[in-house]
Specification:
- Helices cover about 40% and strands about 10% of the residues.
- It is of the alpha+beta class and about 550 residues long.
- Helix 6 crosses helix 8, helix 7 runs antiparallel to helix 8 and helix 14 crosses helix 16.
- The chain starts with a strand and ends with a helix.
- The relative contact order is 0.15.
């Protein structure tokens, strides 16, 4: 988050899975030189270079006119299956060596059987849907798929050069090459330098399926001429993410004869998108840009829910992107998008330099802004006042004694009678330190939204109420998210008539990704649990609010 201080297309041969060099020893899933769903320029020795048009990011300024919030929950958009699977189910035994090119030195991996089944299913699925989507016969991948690992002695074809070295494959993680029409993926398992195997080991084999489905999406783009067009990388990458979501959706809904994906696998796909997002602070329109986690998860969900025909439209009708660049020379850029939890933690000289008007900590300005947002909304839409809430901290939520306490997450409780939000400070500080400042923004947002629901007379409980809290939180985020020129809707308004902008804060690059992380962390384990919504459902509700505001929450 940022407290605003103010005074009076591509033709590269390689389509890869990563976007920036992996940090050795860093978190698994720190972005690599092309993420799941990313194109990167080929090495200088390997073929055509990338050409990206000078394209401005779309204007994301939301309309300033809001209509009344709803007391109904957003519709649950996660498809259900007759019996919700919780682990990948491989229905047909397919020999790995019959599908993937690997020599006798390949170390066995726990995901090998899944890779063979997933790749076979991706080709089977495209054979069925390609004629309907594109009106032409489908041509399967001609060059096959290769697994790379340090022990491999047989060569992998090159993409414009004699062969692909393992060092190059480590850099790319996974790629599709239109020179030879083949795919390759890194099967190394060193968590300090490799990405896919550690991700699959941590989150599940479905990560491999999402990666392969994404890369196969680039093969589809080659077949329909998309890769011949002068498009920014982000456009082709979003479509490939969408295709990966569409393949995942059909396997989740039981439409594949080869495998079934369940809720655990769907969560793994969302985590894969989170772990391979573009680095915070970089433009999605730079060569090799693939999008923030918010962007990538959105494209994945679009395909999952709408299918491949919708994905085919994204080249000419791309999804809205959220800003991912810092304003040059801003305090936000210096602090890498994270406002201080406590201004006393900063060097006093730094405070004077970055905040000449004084430093306000995130717990204070977030609460102030949410109170302002709901006060303005209630005044505009209902002609009455929203009673402000106050915030308290505790070392344990078990100490909260208000008789009407409502626990929303393991970190936060609301007391409607006293208009109090109480959060577990040790837990929040730990999450804040690990992931960023909008962990607190998300927790505050759903708590304030729940108070608003109470004031509006909502009788919703359980999952429907929680999903509406997510949607309302997204609507608040929409109101403080800047467009490509740094403007937010509420900074342009003075609805309360005090002569000052209604909001002096903005979201920062990375904030929306932090909200998605919290949704994944907190979400129900399965679609049949129905406590607060699965990660997929919570993210979908949050995105509905961010992209459409309060009217979209009401419509859903």
């Amino acid at each position: 988050m940022a407290l605003v201080v103010s005074s009076c297309g591509d033709d590269a041969a390689i389509r890869a899975t990563t976007a920036s060099p992996i940090t050795v020893g860093g978190d698994v899933g720190g972005d690599v030189a092309g993420d799941v769903g990313g194109d990167i320029a080929a090495p200088a020795t390997s073929g055509p270079t990338e050409s990206v048009p000078d394209t401005d990011a779309p204007d994301t300024t939301p309309p300033t006119t809001e209509t009344a919030p709803s007391t109904s929950a957003p519709a649950t958009t996660e498809p259900a299956v007759a019996e919700t699977a919780t682990e990948p189910q491989i229905l047909v035994d397919i020999a790995f060596g019959d599908i993937v090119d690997a020599d006798a030195n390949k170390p066995p991996r726990s995901h090998d059987a899944f890779v063979a089944a997933a790749f076979t299913d991706i080709q089977r699925w495209w054979g069925e849907v390609f004629p309907d989507v594109y009106g032409a016969p489908f041509e399967p991948l001609q060059g096959g798929i290769y697994a790379g690992y340090p022990e491999r002695e047989t060569s992998i074809p090159g993409c414009g050069q004699p062969q692909t070295s393992y060092q190059d494959l480590e850099l790319y993680v996974a790629f599709y090459c239109n020179i030879g029409d083949f795919m390759a993926y890194d099967d190394g398992d060193d968590p300090d330098v490799n990405l896919l195997t550690p991700l699959a080991d941590e989150f599940g084999s479905a990560v491999m399926g999402v990666v392969l489905a994404h890369e196969y999406g680039h093969a589809i783009q080659e077949r329909v001429g998309v890769l011949d067009r002068p498009l920014a990388t982000i456009v082709t990458e979003q479509q490939a993410d969408c295709f990966a979501g569409a393949w995942t959706g059909q396997a989740y809904q039981g439409e594949s004869p080869l495998l079934v994906l369940g809720d655990t696998d769907l969560r793994a796909g969302l985590l894969a998108m989170l772990e391979v997002r573009d680095p915070v602070g970089t433009s999605q329109y730079t060569p090799g840009g693939h999008g923030s986690a918010f962007d990538r998860v959105g494209a994945f969900q679009e395909g999952f829910l709408q299918g491949p025909a919708r994905c085919a439209q994204l080249i000419d009708d791309p999804l809205t992107l959220m800003p991912n660049q810092f304003q040059p020379f801003s305090p936000d850029a210096y602090l890498e998008g994270n406002a201080p939890y406590d201004c006393a933690d900063l060097d006093p000289a730094l405070v004077d330099e970055l905040f000449p008007a004084g430093c306000t900590s995130a717990p204070v300005f977030l609460a102030d802004d949410l109170n302002n947002f709901w006060q303005v909304t209630f005044d505009d839409e209902f002609g009455r006042s929203f009673e402000p809430f106050s915030v308290e901290t505790t070392d344990s939520l078990s100490s909260v004694t208000c008789p009407d306490a409502r626990g929303l997450t393991p970190q936060v409780v609301v007391c409607p009678g006293t208009r109090t939000i109480v959060y577990d400070e040790p837990q929040v500080i730990d999450l804040y330190t690990q992931f960023g400042d909008f962990i607190l923004g998300y927790i505050y947002g759903i708590a304030a939204a729940d108070l608003a629901q109470t004031d509006l007379g909502s009788t919703l409980t359980g999952e429907p109420r929680a999903l509406l809290d997510d949607c309302y939180t997204g609507a608040w985020v929409r109101d403080i998210t800047p467009d490509s020129r740094g403007n937010t809707p509420r900074r342009q308004r003075d609805d309360d008539g005090d002569g000052e902008p209604d909001s002096t804060i903005t979201t920062s690059p990375g904030d929306l990704d932090e909200a998605i992380r919290m949704a994944i962390l907190l979400g129900d384990t399965g679609a049949d649990v129905d406590h607060i919504g699965t990660a997929f459902e919570k993210i979908d509700a949050f995105r509905t609010g961010v992209l459409g505001g309060l009217p979209a929450c009401r419509a859903d």
